[in-house]
Recover the amino acids of this structure.
């Protein structure tokens, strides 16, 4: 059984268990490929499902399996941790890979960790609640920089997520045209990315270059980054489309 089949089997088992027990059950954090498998088999689940990663724009998400006639309130088992330099004056300039590397050396499975996001002079780790105390105790250094952790509300993360507002001009709002504009690629290069299964829209792998981008689509391109397609804002004198989008800074 390959990884795709194992992922599908695990999700279907969770759905059946939630239905049988009458309680909400949760997956671990799923990456983009696993989320695509989830979307492909949504019709096969024995329960309703929802997905969430702690913040609305999260790339890695947990699936909730929700049985019918549920009589209690529930929340996703997600904790948000703020990582700050203990001594800002002496702190190195750190990147996403530095923090992820330090987190992974602690021996926690990647599936227990959601997105790692950049804030204003700090980072935020989204993780499952049951591993948060371990991170609080063990994550004391990133590279050579001493850090301190605190539990925060996800509202704080949303208010500090750095976005870069951008404008562009495209011939049409097809996916291949939009990606070529955003990442300064040729149309053939963006086609190659789509055909190589490296493009995801709202967590779903899109293999069709003619997909029409819609307002509020979150588009992830493996190896390039992620952006929020906001709107078509007008036309040029030559009939080309003006677009607005935001790049996620990480």
């Amino acid at each position: 059984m390959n990884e795709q089949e194992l992922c599908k089997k695990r999700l279907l088992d969770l759905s059946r268990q939630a239905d049988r027990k009458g309680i909400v059950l949760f997956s671990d954090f799923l990456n983009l490929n696993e989320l695509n498998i989830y979307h492909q088999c949504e019709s096969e689940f024995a329960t309703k499902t929802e997905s969430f990663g702690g913040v609305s724009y999260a790339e890695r998400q947990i699936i909730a399996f929700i049985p019918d006639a549920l009589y209690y309130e529930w929340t996703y088992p997600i904790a948000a941790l703020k990582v700050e330099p203990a001594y800002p004056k002496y702190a190195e300039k750190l990147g996403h890979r530095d923090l992820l590397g330090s987190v992974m050396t602690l021996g926690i499975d990647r599936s227990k960790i959601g997105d790692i996001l950049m804030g204003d002079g700090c980072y935020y780790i989204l993780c499952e609640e049951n591993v948060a105390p371990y991170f609080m105790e063990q994550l004391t250094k990133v590279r050579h920089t001493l850090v301190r952790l605190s539990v925060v509300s996800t509202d704080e993360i949303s208010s500090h997520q750095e976005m870069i507002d951008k404008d562009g001009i495209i011939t049409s709002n097809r996916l291949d045209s939009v990606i070529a504009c955003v990442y300064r690629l040729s149309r053939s290069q963006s086609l190659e990315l789509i055909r190589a299964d490296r493009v995801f829209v709202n967590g779903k792998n899109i293999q069709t270059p003619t997909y029409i981008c819609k307002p509020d689509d979150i588009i992830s391109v493996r190896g390039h980054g992620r952006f929020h397609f906001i709107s078509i804002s007008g036309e040029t004198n030559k009939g080309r489309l003006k677009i607005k989008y935001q790049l996620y800074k990480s």
Residues 163-248 form a domain with the Structural Genomics Hypothetical 15.5 Kd Protein In mrcA-pckA Intergenic Region; Chain A fold (CATH 3.10.290.10). The mean pLDDT is 91. The chain has three domains: 3-66, 78-160, 163-248.
